[in-house]
């Protein structure tokens, strides 16, 4: 056992009562509020590089071996075939991820456009016949039905599919496996739940869910589907390690963004800026390939649909706004207006984060009570949304139709800006045009240029307030819900509002103001810059507004950063996922590595008694155990290396024991296939319960040397914790051995894990650091 | 001394004769050819993190301290002011870099357009008057004069300014200081040399030089100008460390691309994909800000010029091509055509790299002979270029002018597609329209859409061959020369050639084919993907062609990667800059860290005799020395840490010596200002010659503990070299201590430096690895 403390990030129930009590004195009320919502969690991943220079079967399981660059020129021709297989497979997987994500993205849009379109057509028809109450019933009924369907899927089949999914994917790519977050059931619910949820008229987006879907697809493909079917599993063994899985899932996340926004470059940048914690140039290229495939698939399918073969799915299906601003110049007051827009947008954005946080904490209390409460909450929000969407347009006045004969007014069919609602012939209700539309169409209406008169100030104000509030109260209910679309909607209406207000001062188009407003809100909540900028560019297809979008994003991010963290970071923290930040916290500089290692340390001998190993495995949840060689095997006690729980389990299952404490060497491994030690998929590896060790075997010995990582990364106990954190983070470690400064002491002081770097752990041991902080 | 071997990457003359002889047996002919061209080199940078947890003055010099995130919440209010200063300064510097680079970019274009424009107008006028020979003399004379001016600047003032500069910037960001590569004189020559060189009609670009210029500007601003003027030096002390300089230079490089192409997002991605070796999210944001400033500055200045106040600098000054392809759909044969285009482009691209490499090696022999030979070479190439540019158009037939009255034909003024050259009234020479134009205008002509008939197949073929060859022979002469424009020119003519050839099969526009051809060549030479894609998008302002551009880039890069490395990597290698790749070489897996450490190791005592230190400093060029505590200071010999040459020099200069071997502790440091130990600019630190140690002081002792980094990163000697390389590279180290596996031996085995990971070093020790490889 590496650390005597019974509760650890790597075992279940890290934040169980016991832990909070133990460190009770150091944890203030403030911290108890911050108790994470996600309780059940397993983390079964191995240290990134488990082997030294000795060539042994274990070695060929690790990423260093299967990494393309590394053994491009390996010596044995047998290996060359493996490399070829690996490279081909890597690109095939990227292609498949792109294809699948593109298809799912298309399916998502197809579903939403048809379901929501049917609902809206029905409502519109009834409204035209002046059957207002029936129209409301139809509208609210459809919404409720769809919402309940989504909630049932979410609550009973895969609770992990609720919400955006981006925080979980981000945490996964940082090295934290949240419970069943990439399971096939989650994928299924995420796809269908998202279609149903968006169709139900909620103020939610499909972008977060698409990212999560892409990640799930990547994970599923990387595992070769289900184990039952033994599909191509021999080839996929190359991907049974942390690094390759992580790479695949990065590709998947990028493909998700690409599919949601039809923004291939934006997708790559999103993966780079927001999702991934480690990045390599090689990955840039592969991700780019995946998103290119997504773009091609979507384009092909949309072209197919232009001929009208996809029901109500029209040209406007996948969001692609043409803000043809045709601005070639802007004056000082324009820039000033944009500055102010950015500042206020940043404030609103960070407020949004604040409220989302509060609402999430409240909802989590309700959601924890069980599936039925979850569904009840969804029903409540669905009814609220329906009432707002249907009720608020009554507040708007009827506007005479524009005289331009090219514009169909009032709108008859599925899409269009001019909903008649309650208005008489030749008039339209501008608020209904926003509310009684899909979110995509509403955004398109807000972004449309050359339409200064279309929406009144009053309507825009109502819409802004309603969407801002609905967006906040909707996130957290048990349906897959993205945050991009609510934020873009609120931001666009805010921007258009400002644009209409100061229309006399500025020459910029109100559509452009709407875009800039959306950018400011996005910058204020998500805190991304380059990727948002590129996504917005790809959405609107106008490069000339680039400087203004950049300016707004920079300002709103700067402003919002003064108040709180980005919304995804906030959710990661709230869920209690032990995210390793890329920089060390300031108080870490005042501690050394030895300060946060907590004992007593339990180690194994190089040749250890089976009973001792079994006992350690049973009584702790640790995944890494130091192995110490002692006389007579070595001259003095020395650190032999680190052995992983998963490898110990495989070794014990092999039952190659000896009655004496002797080195059996690599012959032990001849009983195993080279890939027996490969990292199994979540929940698929050998478990402790699978072992059937007889009583008399308990006294036998097993040589741990063949499965020991003989050169783990180590730090000296006097190293600044900040420096150790840097090493831990940059190399993506899971275990870091702390060795003594002075010779003559036991060769290892302890092991640092991810958990030891969390503020909860450190401030738990050193409460006064918190006061100083 | 850390390693007994006298020649080291950190000392001058790493690849001197001595070294080659010593390892002669292991170095084949092939390797001697690869002997680097750059001989003089100093590398005076410190290990990335020099301090542990003990708060001492040294500590506050290191990046960990000045890093914004780290001490955002530092305890002492005095520090808070420093943090504020640091943050304000960081952003101010980013702003200034953006402003300065934008201005230089504008100046560059202004200069080129006016000088080259004047030259071309003169030639054109003379041609219209049928004075052909006089026209040639004027043309060639202008070219020669400008070329010689550029060459004189380059050869006599700053030889480091020749060539692209991107490889050197890339190496700097990897941690290798090439000699005077970022010096003010280099900046000066790069700016003016680039203007003169491009104006001289060479087939060279301004992009590489702009990147280098941006990096120089960043370096200069970060150092606070010259030391003489003491300008804001107190504030800039925060930037006197490796990491902050590196960050600034990354911003500068991105700003350079942004200024060259007016591509702000492309600039950021270029810095990320090609230039930077380490990347943080925080940097993404700052870089983005810098490029946004560049974009705004350029836009403002260009708007100013639209009114005609900038001489011949017109709307077309900064390249911005509008390939309004208006493609909404493409068929299978279009995609097939694009595939083939990409494959052939990839082959041509890698061939380009191959020839550039050969030509560079040949030129280096000439250039090494002295400045006059350099100038002679420039004169030769200039005459060759003039002859081609003026002579080849005679091969083209005169084409009747298009009937469209909107098009001015033949061209009278500065720009325009229809040069009359030798042709009679109402006719134009299509080849002259390409050759007798600035490179930017030639590219614009090639990219122009809806002009299928403008250039004949024959002319395009001649132009392609000529530019391809001229581009190859021009790079390597003593003028600042970018590679982007030659490659784009050659690629665009190739693409347009293919487009014209298969015009009957494919519906795509020839302008689009030219763009795709340029993309394929760029992918084949530079091997970037995402950044090139975005740069091309920003250049052409058309997002609809994105999937095709992505496809072409991916294919051409894949094809070309089978033959050789990217052109910048190739130049880095040829120059002998010890670039640390992000992945370990395969043969490293068969070695352990202890294998490549070469002895005998010279270490210092914790309290060391001044004479010994001075001797070690004098007789070696090493920058890191292990410090060992021995009894009576410690119980047993133990590794105290690592001390840097630069800090030793400062300490010795302070002359705080004691006559006994005692710990004097931190009082030693009271003689020093906190920033005395800050990393000085290149060539500005304390030098060995500055020390004046008396003979009797030689026997005194000095306590090294206060300036020792007490917790350097260490690896055990049995660690796989590949793993050690990963640690070294990921953390950006300069020294890595190798400690023994078993206790009881001396506490340090040796020190690994960047040099120990180079193939030259490893294959020098283990020649048989090469055979196996």
Automatic annotation (TrEMBL), chains A, B:
<keyword id="KW-0851">Voltage-gated channel</keyword>
<feature type="transmembrane region" description="Helical">
    <location>
        <begin position="457"/>
        <end position="485"/>
    </location>
</feature>
<feature type="transmembrane region" description="Helical">
    <location>
        <begin position="248"/>
        <end position="272"/>
    </location>
</feature>
<keyword id="KW-0129">CBS domain</keyword>
<dbReference type="InterPro" id="IPR001807">
    <property type="entry name" value="ClC"/>
</dbReference>
<keyword id="KW-0406">Ion transport</keyword>
<dbReference type="InterPro" id="IPR000644">
    <property type="entry name" value="CBS_dom"/>
</dbReference>
<keyword id="KW-0812">Transmembrane</keyword>
<feature type="domain" description="CBS">
    <location>
        <begin position="707"/>
        <end position="771"/>
    </location>
</feature>
<dbReference type="GO" id="GO:0009705">
    <property type="term" value="C:plant-type vacuole membrane"/>
</dbReference>
<feature type="transmembrane region" description="Helical">
    <location>
        <begin position="375"/>
        <end position="396"/>
    </location>
</feature>
<dbReference type="GO" id="GO:0022857">
    <property type="term" value="F:transmembrane transporter activity"/>
</dbReference>
<protein>
    <recommendedName>
        <fullName>Chloride channel protein</fullName>
    </recommendedName>
</protein>
<feature type="transmembrane region" description="Helical">
    <location>
        <begin position="336"/>
        <end position="355"/>
    </location>
</feature>
<dbReference type="InterPro" id="IPR002251">
    <property type="entry name" value="Cl_channel_pln"/>
</dbReference>
<dbReference type="InterPro" id="IPR014743">
    <property type="entry name" value="Cl-channel_core"/>
</dbReference>
<keyword id="KW-0868">Chloride</keyword>
<dbReference type="InterPro" id="IPR046342">
    <property type="entry name" value="CBS_dom_sf"/>
</dbReference>
<keyword id="KW-0472">Membrane</keyword>
<keyword id="KW-0813">Transport</keyword>
<comment type="similarity">
    <text>Belongs to the chloride channel (TC 2.A.49) family.</text>
</comment>
<keyword id="KW-0407">Ion channel</keyword>
<dbReference type="Pfam" id="PF00654">
    <property type="entry name" value="Voltage_CLC"/>
</dbReference>
<dbReference type="GO" id="GO:0034707">
    <property type="term" value="C:chloride channel complex"/>
</dbReference>
<feature type="transmembrane region" description="Helical">
    <location>
        <begin position="135"/>
        <end position="158"/>
    </location>
</feature>
<dbReference type="Pfam" id="PF00571">
    <property type="entry name" value="CBS"/>
</dbReference>
<keyword id="KW-0677">Repeat</keyword>
<keyword id="KW-1133">Transmembrane helix</keyword>
<feature type="transmembrane region" description="Helical">
    <location>
        <begin position="83"/>
        <end position="104"/>
    </location>
</feature>
<feature type="transmembrane region" description="Helical">
    <location>
        <begin position="178"/>
        <end position="204"/>
    </location>
</feature>
<dbReference type="InterPro" id="IPR051280">
    <property type="entry name" value="Cl-channel/antiporter"/>
</dbReference>
<feature type="transmembrane region" description="Helical">
    <location>
        <begin position="497"/>
        <end position="522"/>
    </location>
</feature>
<keyword id="KW-0869">Chloride channel</keyword>
<feature type="transmembrane region" description="Helical">
    <location>
        <begin position="528"/>
        <end position="555"/>
    </location>
</feature>
<feature type="transmembrane region" description="Helical">
    <location>
        <begin position="278"/>
        <end position="298"/>
    </location>
</feature>
<dbReference type="GO" id="GO:0005247">
    <property type="term" value="F:voltage-gated chloride channel activity"/>
</dbReference>
